[in-house]
Structures are given as C-alpha cells and as structure tokens.
Amino acid sequence: MIELLPLAAVPPVAIESLLDAAFGTDRHGRTAYKLRAGVDAIPGLSLIAVEDGELVGSIQCWPIQLTEADGDTTPLILVGPVAVRPDRQRDGIGRQLMDAMIERADATDHEPLVLIGDPEYYGRFFGFDDRVTGGWALPGPVERRRLLARVRSGPGLPQEAVMGPRVPAPALVENR
C-alpha cells in the first residue's frame, strides 16, 4: 500500500538518488532546474510516496514567478519533478502524487500551477494546457507545447513575461 508523506520525511540524499534513477545524473542542466534555482520546495505541496518503508516516488513544487516588462510580477507554482522509481513506473504512483498535490493546492487559494511535461497526459488527467503560456520566456530551451499551466478562475495571467525563481521584494530602506 502506498503512503504519501511530506517530502521532509526522508533525507534530501534519498530524493536526489530517486531523481538520478528516474531522470539521470545530467538532469541539473534542464530548464526546470534554472526556474527553481535558489528557492526551496513548498513543503505543503511536496510529497513522497513510500511503500513497505521504501521510497518509490516524489513530487516537488516550487515558488516561481512571471515578470513582465514593466516589472510587475505574478507568482506561480512550478510542479515537478514528479519522479517514480524506474521499476515502479506505470503503477499509478505519479498520478497519486499529482492528485494529492492538486487536492492540497485546490484546498487553498493557490497560485496557478505550471509544469513542463507531456500535454496529452497532464491535460487529460489534471487539466493543464498551453493556452496561456505561448508568450512566456524561460531561462533555457523548452518545447513550447510542453510548457503547461493549470489556472483556476480569477484574474488572467500575462500574455508576455519571463519565468524565473520567485524572489522576495526588495526591502524598503528609509533614508534618515
């Protein structure tokens, strides 16, 4: 039986080992890694899947943002990687992780979710699509059809902006 737990329930080295097995040790150069550089995963949305005491999957979510030409920013949540141990892929573990993360996100007034992934899979099962992402610039290459967003009702997203890690607003300093 699969048990879903917070990401912090296992040491970071265990997550890194899982990611190496699922995606290869050369994964750090991918665009998604540049998007989340310097930020920590969101604890309430980042989960692991454990079966019989063994780590079999994980999902991580990251605070990122869109920055428009005028400097306005829109917060987003980058979903991924969704990793499943290679010998357990196609067992529905990734889908369980996605469902649990979306349920947690939807229980709050969360930012729009974005990911880089297979549109046929993420669209069909989770409501992600590329309708709003066509004018977004990224810090590396991406297959445009794979840049997907899941937007709940509310204000629209900018049509043109640059994606990057979410950075805190600069502190206001009083001159005395």
TrEMBL record:
Fetch the CDD domains from UniProt: NAT_SF (cd04301)
PROSITE patterns noted in UniProt: GNAT
Q: Please spell out the taxonomic lineage of the organism that makes this protein.
A: Bacteria, Pseudomonadati, Pseudomonadota, Alphaproteobacteria, Sphingomonadales
Q: Which organism is it from?
A: Sphingomonas crocodyli
Protein name in UniProt: N-acetyltransferase
Query: Could you tell me the superkingdom of the organism this chain comes from?
Result: Bacteria
Keyword line: Transferase
SUPFAM superfamilies tied to this protein: Acyl-CoA N-acyltransferases (Nat)
The segment(s) forming the N-acetyltransferase domain are 2-149
GO molecular-function terms, A-Z: acyltransferase activity, transferring groups other than amino-acyl groups
